[in-house]
Input
Amino acid sequence: MDLVRYEIKKCLRHSPFRKVVIFIILFHCAATTFLLFQKENGVSWVSLAGSSDEMSRQFYENQIEEAKAYPQFVEQVLSEDDRLRQSTLFSDPGSYAFLNSERKAEYYGKLSHRQFQLQPAFSLSFILQEPVSLVMVLIFIIFSAYSLLIKEKEDHLEPLLMPIPRYKTKAAVHKFISLFLMGSGMFIFLELLKWGISLSLLGWKCDLSLPIQTVMGFLYVPYAMSAGSFLAVYLSMKAFITLFFLLFISAIVVRLNQGPAFYLCIILLFGAEIGLYTKIVNESFLILLKYVNLAALLQFNQYLSAFMSVPIGNYPIEICYLIILTCLLGVVSSGIFFRYATKHPKPEIKRNWRLNLKHDFPPRSLLNYEFRKFWMNGENLFIFIALIILQSFYCWQYSPYIGKDEYYYQQFSFQLQGTLDERQTKWAANQNQYYAGIQSQISKLYEQYADKKMDQRTLEREVFTLTLNLESMEGYQRAEQQMEQLQSLGKTEYVYETPVIQIFKAKEEILLKAGFLFLAISFWIAAAVGRDNALQMNHLIRIYEQRKHKVDVQKRKIVYFVSGGVYSFLFLSTVIVKLNYYEANILSYSAANVLALGVSLPFSILGLLFILFVLGLGYVIIFDEVLFRLTSGQRNRNSALWTNIGLSVIFLMILGSLLSL
Output
C-alpha cells in the first residue's frame, strides 16, 4: 500500500489537481443550491417545503389529490393492458407488445386496491431526482486518471522505470487502486454534501418504512417496495455506475500517452453518446443504442420512477435492468482490457520447429506477406470481428415497430400481391361488402338505443365488439388505393412496397453503418501506413525491392478487399433480413417492376438493389483511395488516424446529402 499512498500524495501535491478538486466541490454546492431554489412553473423545492406561497400550497394539494386517485390509475392501466392483449394486432403471446403488457400488468396488479397518502418527504424526493453529483464524480475521475496515468508519461518518467521487472503491471494496478480510492472518496463526499445541503434547506420529514409511492414524484413507480429499500437500490446502482466509469476511463487512459489526445477521445466519445441519446426516437430500430449509452447512465434515476422497457428480439427488458446489465458487461470487458493493456510480457524461448523439416517451401508472394502482416495486427482483427458481431446482432434482433394500420396493410397486400386481374377486384368488392355490413349493424344499434330498446351499457358493449372488426379497415383502404392507383397507371403487378422503402429510405441506419465502416477503414489505413512509415520500412524494402510503390499497391488491394467484403456483408445481410422480416420473398421481386415506388423502371427490384450495391461499393473504394493518398506520407499513426477520422466525417456528410435528395 506504500505505492498507493505515494500515488495519492503525488496527486494531492499537484497544484492543478487541487484546483480542479476545489472547483468540483464548489460547483457541486452551487449547482445543488441553485436547483433547490430554481422555480419550475412558479414552484421551487424550498418554497414547496416551507409552503411559503399560495402556488406552492396549491401544487402540493394537487399532488395529494393525484395520490388519492391512484387506485383508479391502476385499474385503468390493467384494463387497457387487458384490452391490448385481446386485440387482433397484439394477441400473439410471443410478441414484444404482449409480453411487455403482461409484465406491466403483473407489476401494477400487486399495487391494485392500495391507497397511498403523500408524505412531505421533499428532501428524499430531491435526493432521488438530483442529476449533478454523478456528473461531478465522472469529471473528477477523468482528471484523476490523467494525473495518475498520463502525466507520468508526459514527464518522460515511464521509460526510466520500465527496466524495473514487472514495473508496468504493478504500477498500473497501484494507480488503478489509487484512482478507485479517490473516486470512491469523492463519490461519498459529494453524496454527503448533497444530503447536508438538502437537509439543511428542506428538512427531514420522511418515514422510510412507508411505500416509495408516498414520496412526491414517485407515485407511479411499478415496484412494491418501501422508501428505504428504494433508496438502497438507488445508492447501489449509483455506486455500481461509478465503478463502471472508473474501469471504463482507466481502460481508455492506459492506451494513451498524451493529455490532449485523452481529453479529445473523451469529448468525442461522450459527444457521440449524447448525440445518439438525444436523436434516437423510441420508435427507432436503434432504440437499444439510446439506453445502452453513457448519457443514459448519467440520468439513470429517471428510469426508476416509471415502467419503461425496450425489446431485445421480442423479449421486453426494463431499462433499469438494462442499465445494470450494461454496467456489468462494461465492468468485465473494461477490466479484461485494462489487464491486457498493462500485462508485462515474459521473455520466452521459442524454437523454430520448421528448421527441423526437410521440405522446401516456395517463397511467399508480397501480397501474401502483406496480407498476413495485416491480420497479425490484433487491433485490425478485433475491429473486423466487432463489425461482424454488431451486424449479426442487429440482424438477430431486428424488430421495428409495426403499427396497427401497417400490420393490416401488410396482410391485405399479401392477399392482393401478384398479377392484377379479376381476382383482386372481386376480393376487394367482397371486403367492402363485409365492412359495409358491420357499419350497418352499428347504425341499427344506435337506432335501437334511440328508440329506448337498449340501455347505454349494452350499446357500448355491442358497439365496442363490432368496432374491433373495423380496426383493419384503414389498412385495407390503403391497400385498395394502392391497387387502384396501379391499375390506373396501367401496371400489371401488385407488390407490397414497405420492405423496399425500409431498404431505400433508412437514412439513419445507412449513416450509422457507414460511420462504423468508415471508422474501421480509417483505423486500418492508419495502421497499414503509419506503422511502416514509423519504422522507415521504405529504406528496408529497397534492400530487396527497388520500387516501393509495389508494396503500396498490395496494401491498397488488401484494404479494398477487406473493406469491400465488410461492406458487402453489411449490405446483403441488411437487405435479406428486412425482406424476410416483412415476409417479402426475394424471388417474387425478380419478375416485378418497382411498382411500389410509383416509378416505371425497366428492371426489377433485384436489379435496382444490385445497382445500389455497386454504387455503394464504388463510394467505399473512392473513400479508401482518398485516405491512402492523403496519409501515405505520414509517419505518426495517431496523426494519420485523426486525419482519416476527419475525412470520414466529410464523406458521411456528403453521403447524408446524397440520401436527402
Observations:
- The radius of gyration is 32 Å.
